[in-house]
UniProtKB/TrEMBL annotation:
It is a multi-pass membrane protein. This is MFS transporter. The keyword Membrane applies. It comes from Cohnella yongneupensis. InterPro entries: MFS, MFS_dom, MFS_trans_sf. Keywords: Membrane, Transmembrane, Transmembrane helix, Transport. Residues 18-476 form the Major facilitator superfamily (MFS) profile domain. The chain crosses the membrane at residues 16-40, 52-72, 84-103, 109-130, 142-164, 176-196, 208-228, 234-253, 280-303, 315-332, 344-367, 373-397, 409-430, 450-471.
Length: 490
């Protein structure tokens, strides 16, 4: 059988052009995770949607996306990463059009599910293509661009949504936040068709359909209650669903471990977790992104409910974070080549400093305008950016090319799950602390609550720092046997 991605394949001369195209998909997908939040009041009025349906409009996308990321990545490995990317982009454009022209809340919810499924087909291919297309010396820079766009989409989602609602072109209102994907997606599809080189694993085996079924069931039962549980007051069925999901996911791990040698390619090769960088890196990803996603939620709630800011004013508060994140993401890969994981550890410390500065400002001033919080938020964003793209490189560094899609899907899945968990837990704590703070006013309650929430984020950032140090220390002993072998050879 012909090898579609042979080891001797030449370096793609158009790799940077192809990266500029496929990276657009990342921006669209991340943007659509956050952009809809600012449009919910307009959707509520226009489609007469109740709160439960508004919640499902948000949850449907996350559910379709997070549940199938590993499946999408593995399908790229087996059937072609370019093919799956193009399929995902085409589906995303079609689903975005469906969302934009939805005539009811129920139709919008269904369309959002298909939008998430399409995102799951194309997103893992981006990391996979970077992993198999770029030589080792350029991979860090490519991942730096990926990380910059990832963060930019997250922190500017509300801002872009607000601007589109404000523009209200052709009287389309909230529908623009979905329809804007159509011209962007069509352009990305056309360029990718021409520029992106196909790649897949050389060994073609049957797809692990049983594994897909088991994993999908387990992730649905885990993610759905986390996404909707907080707003519904954590009803009893949430905990039953979570317990069932853990049992099913444990069964999935056991099933996948037995697959090698049976002629079927595991959906998620368990050998990935034998690599210390991948195993420990996934833990860091879970801690890091749970804190970051929670920050976006609680800071937005603080600005609007605690400070009385409009959604647009709240979005402007994230601009310094976007500046810091984008700048550090582009610079961090170069710094990492020179100073190693100390760059990531410095990023964690910058986050701590930024959060601590916000706590002090909240304690000594009655206002928290853009001027007061510009520098602390900028530092926190810079710290996040200094971690994100080098962390991706660290997690995927030792992954074999034939498992690039599965590893990318696993990385993205853990990122999505940890984000949902962080929002659920820290968001619930924030809401509870505001209600029971005992402060003299609602504004004071929000200040007190944000301070304690930032203490939690500082603890997560410090834990990230410790685990990053552990990755560095674990690699150091590996060099000693090699040095001893050289000495004995002499």
């Amino acid at each position: 059988m012909k090898n579609a991605n042979p080891p001797t394949q030449s370096v793609d001369p158009r790799r940077w052009l192809s990266l500029s195209v496929i990276i657009v998909a990342v921006f669209m997908v991340v943007l659509d995770t956050f952009i809809v939040n600012v449009a919910l009041p307009s959707i509520e009025n226009n489609l007469h949607a109740d709160f439960a349906k508004l919640q499902l409009i948000v949850a449907a996308y996350i559910l379709g996306y997070a549940v199938l990321l590993i499946t999408g990545g593995r399908m790229g490995d087996l059937y072609g990463r370019k093919k799956m990317f193009l399929t995902g982009v085409a589906g995303f454009v079609a689903a975005s059009a469906w969302c934009g022209f939805a005539g009811s809340a129920d139709m919008l919810i269904i369309a959002r599910v298909f939008q998430g499924i399409s995102a799951a087909a194309m997103t893992p291919q981006v990391l996979s293509l970077i992993h198999v297309t770029f030589p080792a010396g350029e991979k860090g820079k490519a991942l730096g661009i990926y990380g910059a766009v990832l963060g930019l989409g997250a922190v500017t989602g509300q801002l872009v949504g607000g601007l589109l609602l404000q523009a209200d072109w052709w009287g389309m209102g909230w529908r623009l936040v979905f329809l804007v994907n159509i011209p962007v997606g069509i352009a990305a599809f056309a360029c990718a068709l021409w520029l992106v080189r196909e790649s897949r694993t050389a060994e073609r085996k049957k797809m692990d359909t049983t594994g897909i079924g088991i994993l999908t069931a387990g992730l649905v039962l885990f993610i759905y209650p986390i996404v909707v549980g907080r707003e519904q007051g954590w009803p009893w069925w949430v905990f039953i669903s979570l317990a069932a999901s853990l049992a099913i996911l444990a069964g999935f791990v056991r099933y996948e471990s037995r697959l090698p040698g049976r002629g079927t390619s595991p959906l998620l090769p368990m050998t990935l977790f034998r690599e210390r960088s991948f195993r420990l890196g996934i833990i860091i990803v879970s801690i890091f992104f749970s804190g970051n996603s929670a920050l976006y939620l609680i800071f937005s709630v603080f600005m609007q409910s605690g400070r009385g800011a409009t959604p647009m004013e709240s979005a402007y508060a994230f601009v310094p974070m976007a500046i810091g994140f984008f700048s550090a993401s582009l610079l961090a890969p170069r710094w990492k080549r020179r100073w190693g994981n100390r760059v990531l550890q410095a990023g964690a410390l910058l986050m701590v400093i930024g959060y601590a500065a916000l706590i002090l400002i909240l304690g000594y001033t009655s206002g928290l305008g853009l001027a007061e919080m510009f520098l602390p938020v900028l530092l926190a964003g810079f710290g996040q950016g200094a971690i994100t793209s080098p962390l991706i490189h660290t997690v995927l560094a030792d992954v074999q090319p034939q498992n690039a899609g599965a590893a990318s899907g696993a990385f993205s899945t853990f990122m999505q799950i940890s984000s949902a968990v962080g929002i659920a837990i820290i968001g619930t704590l924030y809401q509870s602390m505001v209600e029971h703070s005992g402060q003299s006013s609602l504004a004071a309650a929000h200040v007190h609550t944000l301070q304690w929430s930032l203490v939690i984020l500082i603890a997560l950032a410090m834990l990230t720092f410790v685990l990053l140090a552990a990755i560095s220390s674990k690699r150091a002993p590996d060099a000693k046997p090699a040095e001893k072998a050289k000495a004995m050879a002499r």
